[in-house]
Specification:
The protein is α+β, with helices and mostly antiparallel strands and 562 residues long. Among the domains are: 80 residues, no CATH class; 50 residues, SH3 type barrels; 86 residues, Alpha-Beta Plaits, CATH 3.30.70. Helix content is 39%, strand content 24%. The chain contains 18 helices and 24 strands. The N and C termini lie far apart (106 Å). The structure holds flavin-adenine dinucleotide.
């Protein structure tokens, strides 16, 4: 198309250009014309006047300025690409300028035009943004400097006023490590997306091309690099044809990570090139020292926690052994159970933190690790199911107070019944000491039935065998007389909750009759009372001449392992 009519004026100096701009509100600067003229032909831009600054020779230079480099706004891309100062001291700028368009574009287009045009698809704006460049603008009121982060305001819009001329671009010297990549459909095309990375301030500065309305900084990537690592600089990894000397950081294609950039890139069908630039300096001395210190601290904390918790739990368990069946004893047993359980959880968390510190040190993210574990993950899942089942069961055992440490229990599981005293209870397993001293470990999830023999009260039961010819009534009187005496003696007085009673004849055979005696006791003392009762009753029967059958009948026993 043919552009709309316009005036043309050539400026011999920056001051003249400013004055011409002031004379017409719709005037525009013309530099290389390689963005403005195509826009005018499409009638996207319709300036009433073009102020041509293309021949102001003063604005074309590259020079060192202390710890910075200054580039004149009219410096052509070709000259930027070949400036020795840039190649040596800020190679990414020289390299990126060499990637713009074709030789014709590079010989006409200017760095100032690229910046002032405000096109997010331009190669240099993202590079300059990553470098924290400064832009010098001159207007009717003098000169001002605008930081790159404040310069690009929206699509094709910048902080430049209509009557201001961009005169200079200032950049830091940055040759410690860099990378520049762009994705194009065809050679010499504009970037579909691009990324620039520069090593600076102990981290990486990352600029994104064409991933938003303006050039963007990949803040997430930069933050990650600052927190843990800088890029490992690989010497000699420049590709053939790169004229800029220096060193490249390794880059990889990954989904973009930074806010608006990520959204815009995904709008392009996920074609984002983002940069990890995080090839870690984990092999550097500093990294190893930092890592070793972090691990040492976390291991020291975990060890201290384990020792302190272990000490307290052992102390509580010791005290529990000395407790009785009274309210205070039961309270202590409960406390020991809860302390043991909580202590176990604290110790596990402390060591998990050590593991996490190691994984974080190597920047291993647990989420993807678990997801990518594939078959191993499934296997782990099955294993974890049992673990989860045991843990949940353990939690309910404690919450529902099914048993505490020190209780005498029967635990019925698929493997049979385990009877004994609970010595330890963790979320996963219960340790039961059997009466012969064997210590059994029962997974909490495997227990179907719990029989707690020390909860509430117990009943001592003794079956007394006498000859069938004996008068049962007489025997009853003898037994009742004995039980009456015993109830005020030790150990009966402290162990009995109710006076023992003679229940009567419960079995008769050819040779014997069985008379049952029962007594309600403190829960854990029933066996002791049974033993005492048997002894005393046997002695009294003998003393009173009551006959017993010659052939012993099997005695009913209620001891836990009988
Ligand atoms: C075929 C082709 C391929 C291209 N490929 C690429 C590519 O791959 N990568 C890439 O980054 N670019 C590419 N470009 C664009 C090229 O780099 C342009 O030269 C550049 O974007 C604009 O520079 P210019 O000097 O031509 O500016 P102009 O087109 O003259 O001006 C552009 C805008 O900036 C303003 N302006 C210019 N200079 C100043 C100043 N000093 N102060 C204030 N305002 C000013 C103008 O008023 C105008 O609005 C390509 C262009 C073409 C035609």
């Amino acid at each position: 198309m043919i552009p709309a009519p316009f005036e043309y004026a050539r400026a011999g100096s920056v001051e003249e250009a400013i004055s011409l701009l002031g004379s017409d509100a719709d005037a525009k600067i013309l530099a290389g014309g390689h963005s403005l003229l195509p826009a005018m032909r499409l009638r996207v831009a319709r300036p009433s006047m073009l102020v041509d600054i293309g021949r102001i020779a003063d604005l074309s230079y590259v020079r060192e300025d202390g710890d910075r480099l200054a580039i004149g706004a009219l410096t052509r891309h070709h000259d930027v690409a070949n400036a020795e100062a840039l190649q040596q001291l800020c190679p990414i700028v020289a390299h990126a300028a060499g990637q713009i368009g074709d030789p014709q574009v590079r010989h006409m287009g200017t760095i100032g035009g690229s910046v002032a045009h405000g096109d997010p698809a331009g190669d240099l704006p993202a590079v300059l943004l990553a470098l924290d460049a400064e832009f010098v603008a001159q207007g009717p009121n003098g000169t001002r400097t605008v930081a790159a982060t404040d310069f690009f305001t929206s699509l094709f819009e910048t902080a430049l006023a209509p009557d201001e001329v961009l005169t200079e671009i200032r950049i830091p010297k940055a040759n410690a490590g860099w990378s520049f990549m762009k994705f194009q459909r065809r050679a010499q095309d504009w970037a579909v997306v691009g990324v620039s990375a520069v090593r600076a301030n102990g981290g990486v500065h990352v600029g994104l091309t064409n991933m938003g309305l303006t050039p963007l900084r990949a803040a997430g990537v930069e933050e990650a690099s600052r927190r843990r690592r800088g890029p490992r600089v690989r010497r000699g990894t420049r590709r053939r044809g790169d004229r800029a000397p220096g060193r490249c950081v390794r880059v990889r294609r990954v989904p973009p990570s930074a806010g608006e950039g990520a959204r815009s890139a995904s709008a392009r069908g996920g074609l984002g090139i983002a940069l990890l630039a995080q090839d870690p300096i984990r092999y550097s001395r500093d990294w190893w020292i930092e890592f070793a210190v972090a691990i040492a601290i976390s291991i020291a904390i975990a060890t201290a926690v384990s020792l302190i918790v272990g000490r307290y739990v052992r102390r509580y368990r010791r005290r529990t052994k000395e407790t009785g069946d009274d309210v205070e004893g039961r309270r202590r047993r409960r406390l020991t159970t809860v302390v043991g359980l909580a202590g176990g959880i604290v110790v596990v968390i402390a060591w998990l933190m050590v593991g996490l510190t190691i994984l974080r040190g190597f920047n291993v993210s647990l989420g993807p690790l678990v997801v990518s574990a594939g078959i191993a993950g499934v296997a782990l899942g099955f294993g974890a199911q049992t673990l989860v089942r045991d843990t949940i069961s353990g939690l309910f055992i404690v919450l529902e107070r099914q048993y505490d440490i020190g209780d005498v229990v029967d635990l019925e599981s698929d493997g049979g019944v385990v009877s004994g005293t609970v010595e330890a209870l963790s979320l996963r397993i219960t340790s039961v000491r059997q009466f012969d001293g064997t210590l059994s470990f029962v997974p909490n999830g495997a227990v179907h039935v719990v029989r707690n023999k020390t909860r509430g009260w117990g009943r001592a039961i003794v079956d007394v065998r006498v000859a069938v010819a004996e008068d049962a009534g007489r025997v009853r009187v003898v037994l009742e007389e004995l039980l009456e005496q015993l109830s005020s003696e030790e150990p009966f007085e402290s162990a009995l909750r109710k006076n023992p009673e003679v229940l009567g004849v419960v079995q008769v055979t050819d040779a014997a009759q069985v008379i049952r005696v029962a007594a309600e006791t403190e829960p854990s003392r029933r066996w002791e009372i049974e033993r005492e009762l048997r002894e005393r009753i046997t002695a009294r029967i003998a003393e009173r001449g009551i006959r017993v059958p010659p052939v012993p009948m099997p005695q009913r026993g209620s001891e836990p392992d009988a």
